[in-house]
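Journal club prep, shared notes

We agreed each person brings one worked example of a sequence with its structure written out as tokens. Mine is Serine protease. I'm keeping it raw so we can talk through how to read the token line rather than staring at a rendered picture. Sequence first:
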Amino acid sequence: MATKRWFTLLRNAAIGLAAAATAASFATPAVADQPPSTNVVGGTRAAQGEFPFMVRLSMGCGGALYTSQIVLTAAHCVSRTGANSSITATVGVVDLQSTSAKKVKSTYVYRSPTYGTATGGDWALIKLASPVTGLATLPIATTSSLNTGSFSIAGWGAASEGGAQQRYLLKAQVPFVPDSTCKAQGGSYGRLIPNAELCAGNVSAGGVDTCQGDSGGPMFRRDDAGAWIQVGITSWGDGCARPHAPGVYTEVSTFASAIADAAKKI
Ligand code: ARG
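Then the structure, token by token:
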């Protein structure tokens, strides 16, 4: 089962984070010095305030503000449902070292009860000790109608397979990949759960993808009114940005009512 690999990737993400804590690995060129569209993998720097709902979680995952006090992330980023004050959420900044970063502790974790079953459901909610103010939340898709087209991905995870966690938020765009194409890539992709998982990436060329440490972060697009809406949660992939190995995201619309119900209760 792919679960085992997820944990491996998570552990790698944690190791990467520890490495990134040294000043040397945070030596990053200014935005203007960056080559365009080269480095998430195959991404570019997000502007401050561009994605106000983005959350960095202390265990080395991403997330999105579902409400001002609840972060939506991946089930494989957390251990269990219950009281939990061990997670720190960093919000409001693209630069994790910025002095204007807001840091809030968790109080409770809700892990999808269907995660790890045949139903799938790699999602979890983290309740924060207090609401964060002045940051837009990211609504989730409640139908499958927007599970197509081009998606935005973002995160502080590795910018190349096996690479270091990032100080600055990276973003990229990836095209929708049909379940049939995704499954046909073989290996772990043969175990894709079509209703629970949504694939995205450049299938034949690779090159653009989420990577270790981006897990739990949102995959999102514009809705028909032009507003950001979340369609996926970064879940897994075979390596990062490899050809014939698209990124796999939790299909948020499938779990939208379960997420809403859980959020009401925590
Ligand atoms: N599971 C990884 C994490 O813990 C995310 C992997 C995403 N991989 C990919 N190729 N899209 O951060």
